[in-house]
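Entry, Tuesday afternoon. Goal for today is a structural model of the target with adenosine-5'-triphosphate bound, before we commit to ordering more compound. Inputs were pasted exactly as handed over by J.K., no edits. I checked the ligand SMILES twice against the vendor sheet because last time a stereocentre got dropped in transcription.
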Amino acid sequence: MSYNWELSDWPNFTFSTSKIDGKLYAFAQETGEVNALLTALPDNIRQETLLELILSEAIKTSAIEGEFLSREDVMSSIKNNLGLNKTAEVVKDKKASGIADLMIEVRNTFDKKIDGHTLHHWHKLLFAETLHINVAAWRKSSEPMRIISGGINKEQIHFEAPPSSIVAKEMDRFLSWFNHTMPNGSKEIKDPVIRAGIAHLYFESIHPYEDGNGRIGRAIAEKVLSQTLGRPVMLSLSNTIERNKNAYYQALKNAQKSNEISKWLNYFVETVLNAQLDAKQMIDFTLKKIKVFNSIKEKINDRQIKVLQKMYSFGPGGFEGGMTAKKYISITETSKATATRDLQGLEKLGVLVAVGGGRSVNYHLNY
Ligand SMILES: Nc1ncnc2c1ncn2[C@@H]1O[C@H](COP(=O)(O)OP(=O)(O)OP(=O)(O)O)[C@@H](O)[C@H]1O
């Protein structure tokens, strides 16, 4: 069996949009709606929702790779980067600051062309402190670059990327495709989702780096969406991909067998549309949170504020297992009696709802 890049029609991708036109249209509608919603918000609230989206993308694109970063570290890095901290906070985890730097860089330069230096710069942001791989350079190893799963004896090869010797040539062609298909380019692709879907598959199939190809490739997809839409896109692709990683891997694997990519584009548009719907829900959640805080802030104490903020930070999905007196005590270092009184107070205010009773009572956001 041959892989896509070994076929004679590589990289002339063909596809039909007849089955996905409805979804492409739905995305255009949704993205316009979210943009209008955000534009109408006061600056500080828009800023907060934007931070949440960037944070989510940074954390989830890393989680897909099995890197679990601290929310606090990534948030501090994003704020440092956007100049939102009066004095820059020290972030010890370089992986957290690296991915935050990459997210901001991609957003800030969304309308620009890219070349090899751009991608190497992104790669360097991701792997600033890594010594064991070739950073900011195309891969050079003579070993085949394979996507493998399963342990010893159960190894399954899903894909083999082109040999390192032809990566530079393949990347030149990819970058030229990228810049010619951008707005006003000689081969402009007007639909943001189609162009982003092709870009992601194309890049993942070359797999030009020793490591980080997933993260850089998702950053490229977000850049394409923003560049083609003409404004930074307000969604987190990785958040949605991460919820069903196997479907993502399977869709890539199937797409790497032929250059007729209608099925891949169907997967991709569904993912982008869901990501936009998720973002809308998140914005809605952030707005509700701000409204709730404003209406009760005079009536609650610092412990209650701290706990509510923690609960809200987990997003609409909520805090696993709800908030219990035990967790309350460990977050606020208070007594059992105070914890119980504080929690009941929040319930009376209608911010929390109690589930269960007696010793097993736990509280959830009243969302
Ligand atoms: N057939 C395939 N099956 C699974 N993943 C594939 C396949 N083809 C390409 N990929 C891509 O390869 C990525 C993994 O490559 P690599 O380890 O270099 O990237 P990374 O950014 O370090 O990893 P991760 O994406 O796991 O964070 C996947 O995230 C996916 O985007």
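The mean pLDDT is 93.
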